[in-house]
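Today's session is about reading a structure prediction critically. Students often jump straight to the picture, but the first step is always the sequence itself: look for stretches that repeat, for charged clusters, for runs of hydrophobic residues. Only then move on to the predicted structure, which in these notes is written as discrete structure tokens rather than atom positions. Here is the chain we will use throughout the hour.
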Amino acid sequence: MKKTLTKPVKRVAAAVMAVAAATTVGGGWSTEWMPNAYAAPPATTAAHPGTPAANAVWVQPVPALEHGQRPNFIMGADVSELYALEQAQKQFYNTNGVQENCLKILKQHGVNWIRIRLWNDPTNSLGQPLGGGNNDLATDIAIAKQAKVLGMKILLDFQYSDFWADPGKQNKPKAWATDHGAALQKDIYDFTYRTLTTMKNQGVLPSMVQLGNEINAGILWPDGNSAVKAAPFLQAAAAAVRKADPHADNPSKKIQIMLHLAGSSDGSVGNFTSDLDTWTTGNTKVDFDVIGISYYPYYHGTVAQDANILDTLAARYHKPVVVAETSEGWTVAQGDETINTFNQQTAYTAGYTPTPEGQAAEIRDVINNVANVPNDMGLGVFYWGADWLPGDETGWESGAGSSWENQALFDFNGRALPSLDVFREVRHAGPTPPANFVSADPVYVKTSVGTPPILPSQVEGEYSDGHYREVSVTSWNTSGADLSKPGVYTIHGQIGTNSTAATAVVTVNPAQPPNLVQNAGLENGSSGWTSSNPAVATPSTSGTAHNGSGEIHYWSATAFQNARVFQTITNVPNGTYTLSVWAEGSSTSGASQIPYLYATGFNASNPSEVQQQSLQQYGWNIWKQYTMQVTVTSGQVTIGVNCNGDAGAWGDVDDFYFGLPPVSDTATQTQAVSATGPDGQALGTSQIVPYRVPYVTLSSPTPGATIYYTTDGSDPTTSSTTEVYTGPLSLTRNTELKAYAIAPGYRGSLVTSYDFTVDEAQDSNLVPNGGFDTAASLGPWRLSGVPEGGDGSSYVFDATDSATPGIVYAGNGAFQYWSAKPYQFTLSQTVTGLPNGVYTLSVESAGANNSILQPDGRATNDASKATLTLSAETTSTSESVNMINEGTNTNGWNQWNRFEVPNIVVRDGVCSISFTVDASAGYWGYLDHVSLVRTGTVSPNTDR
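Below is the predicted structure for this chain, in token form.
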């Protein structure tokens, strides 16, 4: 389950649609984690929980598990991030606030299995960790040993990839990239056998393994990108499991093999049978024991559909079933800046309130489905991301935070949520919890000046059993909305006897000029529109609409040009008009194959004149509005889109507008983001800020605004790198920051931009002039082998004076090197006065590519381009590292990489550091942020 990595930009749009949720979820939670409006009865004895204490959840029992029935039913949790979290010094606490081991807490609450994913080599081509838990074999063994001590069983999730694998991507490991056929079958066999043999020798042999992760589209792409093509690889992996298993001949003790598939939004059994029919018959039959499915209620249909899928699969294939992944959010708030997968919209889709009670209710319902599969063929459930706490050091990928922390079974500080009790409470016989109305979620309504708003007769109600149910509003009091002028107003409605139980945020927009486009939203199919190539581009209801159900969809398996969808508007009074459209689609088209919005026929003196605006697509469901001005002198205009693309390019356009310029009003727009320092003083658009200090505070004056930002200069309204602001930002490199805000009921703000130059003076760096921040001055560095300075045309070896990101990493300068001829040099200095101890030398490097990609996927030095060496020498040690600049082909612009020389032992206060380059003609690069940091102590009685 890694949907946000398949299309990371999707997170931005989803989050923006539900901005209101973080501050408006019904009733709120008290410090005891119960709705303020819900007064729980007193707790009863531990032997018969009955009704819950104030800090507990009330869970409906699962009769099939009551009275000690099925003690081996799997109550599982995926804890793949645990080792990385522990290495980052994250801590876990039980429900009483006492710090304890994470797995121990889970076991105390009824969890008896853990699930751990395994990647082959979760590092990039330079050997740097990719993140996401960095689950290689050593990491997984460390987690498994904790589980074995506690008597918990283990499900090992072979993903057969170096990083996330799911229906959207099944990339071969680097080391197998050039292998095919029998060689690739041997790869998967050897890796599987070697892994299990190692785990057996370490005393942590898993009780179950899954061959691949969500393998609906096969594994090991492109070789195994279908069920039929994947079968030989699955067969080889299964054979390896049986070979490594010391109990393979004992049905009660052997390692169970699972095949794991993900569902889809229609909740159809066919999503599974199309693959499983292949893997259970003929020469594509795979040796496996268990069927695993992913079921996320906000992705994969209703609970009833999930139950039908489980029952059908067990009966059809005569194999037990497991829900290998499920989850639900306990809040819509953010624990870190990475935008979360779960938000208010997904909560509505799932039908559970974003509270611990709602989270527990979802888990209970899934457990109930599995436990009621006929003939005890439902083995159990695994909760995904159970331990995933927030933080950039342990996120989805290196340098990013978690997008899952609001679905963990612990709060943002690591304290066990009351929902964790669900795993044991479902076994206790007792009454069904009451479904008392708690509160109503707000609704958002738009109208225009002078037009009464259309208010709903029902709203989403949060109930004490964790479910959403629609609740009737008997009347609305609109006196709080001034319909005579633009603005955003809050009004209330009556539910039962409470006259303010319902809330509506009413946006009153200015009255707008008429839209002259017929069927502007494509809701009436092709009415009013003409398609020049309907096989490529045509009005449709099968794609993704911006609003409503209609849009123009375009796609072709082959390259296409000039597939136009257009209409002619007549009787247009001469004047200047606005033409606009919303668009989303493929971001892979070449520069010459970009679709565009166009207008023609508007110029009386030149009827063939065309005015156009390119549609720069940003990816699936990332809608952007494109606008241009058209001056009509002919009394008519033809408007439309011209669709062009490479093979496989696709997109949708919707909500055309052609009319007089729309009327805007600041009363309905979120106010722009401003930046201040810790003292509250405004920061300039070009500002120096301290290194690694929480310094930059962002704010918008509009109440309830959520702020989104990027630090790479991209547009935060569309970028895949957009983050949500949660607190003061600390910067470690020169940064172009862009931010915008949006508040419930308001339009998004304008984007504001800041260029921040990082002052490295506050770093713990001990290297004088490690940032090269003085132009044309290298001291105390010594340069040998080439002339210092530069003549601007044939060479440059000097410190540059520029705060521009890409030229420098941080501060005002960097060491730059280039020559039109082959060259060699060494840049060095001796650092003195160091306290004795163990040190790490690090640098930031960017430049032209000097690497070769080896068959194992590793990047190694291409000496024909350049060899870069970073070295440190003391009386006790001599250490060095080969540095590789990377980019696309020869373009390494702004592709900074950090290189380190660790374990430098200093005994006399002196360390000599050097950067040596042997480069070909025309090779260029930048060196910056040279840092020497003490990382440990050293014993005076040892050599190292």
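Discussion point for the tutorial: The first helix runs from residue 3 to 6.
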